[in-house]
């Protein structure tokens, strides 16, 4: 990764077989489909890539599979998510050994401390894999710490951080971060994790986006990025409106919450579109079934996407 | 108010004398300045208008003063903020009697219940003042309830709500609300309470904005709105960038938090600009002093605004 | 109130008629029943006394009614709950004028600031009614601020606070507060607002309790206090166990939350016991009905209390 | 572990050398000291045992070291804390293979879902190690989910859970849980994770306690348990009061927060008492130094504990 990363870098959703194994054929279809759509990179083992659900062996398998499929066509960022420093360093070293182009880590979680410890955490991980570009993953909904903008810019200036993936849903803080980063000479690549207000993040000056929904529909995000690059804001807005409508798959279901609702809807959509063989979820989460699959299918159809399989087929793709 | 409200409707900051009384001369300067800048309405007794700090008599005095100064030049929305239904209805009736064009109320607070009670609250207040347009004020940071989009649209369709002032800082929910409102035939006027990501809210399709910072600099928000109306997104973005830089007045201080930092910075800026005579705050909040006033002044100067008074003069405008 | 308050001081639940007016006859039955049971004081217009739901006129009516019924038999504390300082001072002056023995106030709410402002708030209210004993009401679930123990003891030593009603549900902080208060010479009367772990609060050294459940069953709390006073911990525990079983009325219902579930169950129990004429709730809260009334009745019966009215009669005591 | 666990089961704090390795000699001193004091079991790799900071290899080393030192004198519970089901199962199998007497797991964290998934998580882990007693660890401050009492009792009745370690700091919920467990025939062993309100938990009917402070002073907790067993509540209270005073070590410091303040104070106290060689902390947490070590020493001295080393010696036991 010689030049700074820019553009659309989807977090890669991990396809499973009904038995819960990695579904390599589906993985190939999905990754090739995103690269063909023109994405600028891929982020594997993010929150939606089920990093928290995957054992170390499974994480290694996912990294190897993704890198083999991508085969250098785009850079691959690898999530090294774990509770505290030494555990994260182990993942970082494994990612480096396997060939990651960059890694992405969160603030420590489970046992919280103060801001000084969060900063020390990033510095220690960077020191352990100094030649691997390091992205901070700002995701308070999962780790219950919001990364302060001044710390991020300082870590950028010190060469610790290469960039930030902002999934904080705090667009005010993001705009101030973009501004501070520009004032500091743009040491950080700033990527938004938003999906339905990416246009606003581009208005704020984001360097790119990491939208989970791009697994379902990458071409729209690529077109939005290209419109942004050429300053065509009406096109940016029109693309975002269409993608916001599609994002309703994650609010269309009932009786499910959190990861099961969000990634559950992504996997279900991709199974309906024929990209994934099943909508299987990692334990202890159950796949969507019945009326929830139909609800996802209805949103896809409303948005003009053609279903390759019926809701019944997708519901039957995993056990009860 | 015969036509739907649109555009820039600043929440009016309330000027106080050093003794803590309403400062009518400053109020006139400030309101006339905003109307001259071309705002489309004014919202008095919002959170930044110190509604929570004002006794009933003070609220009445503020409403009367604002309505007298405005003299029908723009519509005036009045905040009727209180803990539960019957207290809110008293404020609503007073606002109606005094001549408010519309009122703005939050979900109940202090004693929380469920969603059904929140909806009933809006219906009961509307029933008490049925001919006064009612806006829902979605401000979870103050009332600890997020108003659900489906409830808001339902209340719009039923003629209970005329609109929503969204201060939830949840831009994803806001975009979905805009979309649902459009699908329902646009029963609600949707105003964003954002200040530094108003461009994003316009991208989402907001009908207007209610930025507290417009007390300090209304012309920029008016120009941003006009640019939005004519589809000139580059101009929207440029105006927002300048206003975001100015908004740093609220993060420039230290040792203060919440209302004292936010509205404290607004009042200090307006005293530095010569619009307000003092930067006095309502009890138990103390006005900014010394280095904090200097910090606000530095931001104003950096943004190209000319100071009418020195930081020392503003610090001396209230007692220690 | 010449001597420090000690013992059981129930927060008085406010009975309403089906039309929503104050039900004076029920009020007399309930207050006399608690005084006859041997309570050491009464706290009117607390959170469960529906202070947040009551207009100023209603608050005045409640204070007058309670003081007239009590007629000096026990001291009466009056809640002066409102958003910020000047509004609270108005309530404090009214309470003083009406003859309150002491007042109870929370930290400011709606517009939050820092700790310095919370301390200033208590000092300003005390300065406005300097001869009226002032209790701090620590209730973060309603006001979203936890009062720091060191501030409370400092305000006690300075003669600002006479005591604390602790409804923070933070028993660790309460034990440290008791300890700090003792080290400082016991300037504060420390009352727990707990209901089912009052025994623990007594172990910690509380000076008394303010249990809402005492509206339903005061004699048990009085016996527990007397057992504590004579050091009979087995009796303390046995009484607490019985009262904890009775407290299940507030968890026995479904489809209701917060104030409607808690005070709703208290009012329903008192209606079933024949103390209250109705279980009417203040708007926008609806009274319990049907299966929820039956659930409360079942708990009462299981705990050996005799019902004066059937669930059907109580459900019929208010409109649908 | 043939009989239900009861009594005092301290969570074992992990001693480190200045270089960050396991300090086996200190471990032996500490564990033997607790067993000699009469504890009824030990819980290794709990939150204060730095489970979240330990790599898999380190976890294995800790388990082996503890089991070797304990040598069957008391049962050893092992924390198998990780984000989601399959990762937890790996730890559970390792603990079983190494000889744990029971394991302790939390709700899933990082990626949250609904209650159904939490219950499924416990069932799946139990199914993977069916003959190993499984304790639920209710610690919302770390995992941001509160375990519902009815689920816990149901899992107890179904043979999934052997007990609960309650670190929720919700004493009301704990009392209801004890009561529900008794009504169900006492399927669960209920242990409180409290330190300064253990007397209240015993009043509520706890089957034992898991106090981190017992690493510093186990004899007091053992005496408190024995007093509880013989019904001597005055002695229970007196012991708790002394231990509450000692617990002030964790609030005596400044500039540190969370794990660094809590476990940092425990380790510092043990270094001052000569049990641990250093007060080293796991990365990214720094050990207490200087004035903070002196503050801990002052509390120990005030509580009558004799220091084996000076604060300066302890500050010098790790690098700057």
From TrEMBL, chains A, B, C, D:
This is Dihydrodipicolinate synthase family protein. Belongs to the DapA family. GO terms for biological process: small molecule metabolic process. It holds the Pfam family DHDPS. GO terms for molecular function: 4-hydroxy-tetrahydrodipicolinate synthase activity. It comes from Bifidobacterium eulemuris. Pyruvate binds at residue 210. InterPro entries: Aldolase_TIM, DapA-like, Schiff_base-form_aldolases_AS. It comes from the Bacteria.
């Amino acid at each position: 990764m010689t030049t700074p990363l820019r553009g659309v870098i989807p977090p890669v959703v991990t396809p499973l077989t009904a038995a819960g194994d990695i579904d390599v054929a589906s993985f190939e279809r999905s990754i090739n489909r995103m690269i063909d759509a023109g994405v600028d990179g891929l982020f594997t083992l993010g929150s939606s890539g089920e990093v928290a659900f995957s054992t170390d062996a499974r994480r290694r398998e996912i990294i190897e599979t993704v890198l083999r499929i991508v085969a250098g066509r785009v850079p691959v960022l690898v999530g090294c998510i774990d509770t505290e420093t030494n555990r994260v360093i182990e993942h970082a070293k494994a990612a480096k050994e396997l060939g990651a182009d960059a890694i992405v880590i969160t603030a420590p979680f489970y046992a919280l401390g103060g801001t000084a410890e969060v900063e020390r955490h990033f510095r220690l991980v960077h020191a352990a894999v100094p030649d691997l570009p390091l992205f901070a993953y700002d995701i308070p909904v999962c780790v219950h710490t919001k990364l302060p903008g001044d710390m991020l810019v300082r870590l950028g200036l010190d060469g610790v951080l290469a960039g930030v993936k902002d999934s904080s849903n705090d667009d005010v803080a993001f705009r101030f971060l973009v501004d501070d980063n520009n004032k500091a000479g743009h040491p950080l690549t700033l990527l938004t994790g938003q999906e339905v207000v990416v246009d606003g993040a581009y208005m704020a000056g984001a360097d790119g986006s990491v939208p989970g929904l791009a697994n379902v529909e990458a071409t729209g995000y690529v077109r939005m990025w290209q419109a942004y690059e050429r300053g065509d804001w009406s096109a940016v807005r029109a693309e975002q409106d269409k993608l916001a409508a599609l994002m309703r798959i994650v609010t269309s279901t009932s009786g499910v919450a959190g990861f099961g609702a969000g990634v559950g809807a992504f996997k279900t959509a991709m199974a309906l579109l024929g990209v994934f063989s099943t909508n299987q979820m990692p334990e202890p989460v159950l796949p969507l079934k019945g009326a929830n699959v139909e609800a996802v299918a209805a949103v896809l159809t409303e948005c003009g996407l053609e279903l390759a399989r019926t809701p019944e087929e997708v519901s039957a793709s995993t056990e009860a």
